[in-house]
Amino acid sequence: MLMSAGCVLAAVTHVAFGYLFWRHGAMAMAWGNVGSVLTYLVASWLLRRQRLGAAVPLIMAEVIVHALAAVLVVGWDSGFHLYLMVLIPIFLANPLSGWPVRLTVSTALSVVYVTLDLHGHHHVGLHPLPAEVLSNLHAFNLATTILLMSTVTVLYVRLVSQAEQRLNELATTDSLTGLMNRRSMQAAVARLQTLRQRKPQPTTLILLDLDHFKQLNDQHGHALGDWALQAAADVLSIGVRDIDLVARWGGEEFLIALPDTTLDAAAIVAERLRQNIEALHLPKQGEPGQELDTRLSATFGLAALAPGQPLEAAIHAADVALYQGKQQGRNRVVLAAG
To answer: Which of 219, 302, 215 is nearest to 262 (CA)?
Structure first.
């Protein structure tokens, strides 16, 4: 993304340069800018195909050759040497090389730039431009350099932020269902318990398990099993409030935390969710529009989570109630005793 944005901006800039040199009779530089535009088009094509190993050296070579050639032809005061500085942050952000290589190349570019500045500062150029044009060109190159470096910086920060967000999602959500995973659920309930120390309110846990799930997987394949988990997760997400917490607890088990909800009120919610899961129609794999005679169902165990009570203790109580529901024939809601 960084390199693609740079290629687009560089190609547009070189079109303007080509026109400028053509207007002032520097035809060699005009055609050189045509070659630069083609180079960036090729680099952009390589980047779209994820071929960074070919695109990065091509872009670096173009910038170095073009900057040095432009300084030689129109002089140091044109400001084309400024583009060499753009390569430093771009190469430092390059993921293809290790840090020793990145630092070595960046240092070498810095040394080249400083050396050119010391020895080429008064170079007039083989095809000098009028002073006013040269001054405007220097200002344009300076502004473009700042824009390029700013663009690279902003995009890099944006990419890092997106990567951090994605890593956070991978660490806190279940990849199949999109629900909270076990770890994030534990952390969320811990925060909830901390808040309840200042304002005690009833919280109820609902632990549910899809019935005969292993049999469903064995008879109809894991694809249908995944579909059932996703469909059940959708039912649970839609069927609770925004403040409620829903997680895939493990395998075919789900855990729901209902803040500010009594055990009796949670039983009403659980019964509605049970009915909605039972109403799901399992599709026949490979036969669009066809449904299985088998119906999906779930057994629910409910337990109150007292203020200050460890989550594991409440889950154990809900699990005992869930086991009782399995023993009683499944597809039912059972409240923990006491």
So the answer is: 302
Domain ranges within the chain, ordered by starting residue: 2-172, 182-335
User: For the chain, what's the residue count?
Assistant: 338
Task: Show Cβ contacts of residue 117 under 8 Å, excluding neighbours closer than 6 positions.
Answer: 81
What pLDDT was estimated at residue 251?
93
pLDDT digits (tens, 9 = 90+) for 100-135: 888 888 888 888 888 888 877 777 777 777 888 888
Domain covering 182-335 assigned CATH 2.30.30.40 in the classification: no
Residue bearing tokens 């409620």: 244
Residues annotated as part of the active site: 252
Asked whether 305 and 314 are in contact (CB, 8 A), the reply is yes
Question: 291 forms bridges with which residues in the sheet?
Answer: 283
Here the tokens at position 288 are 């669009």
Chain segment 8-56, per-residue pLDDT in tens: 878 888 888 888 888 878 788 888 889 999 998 999 899 888 888 888 8
338: pLDDT strictly greater than 70: no
In the DSSP assignment, the letter for residue 181 is -
Please state, in angstroms and rounded to a whole number, the distance separating the CA atoms of residues 76 and 122. Answer: 7
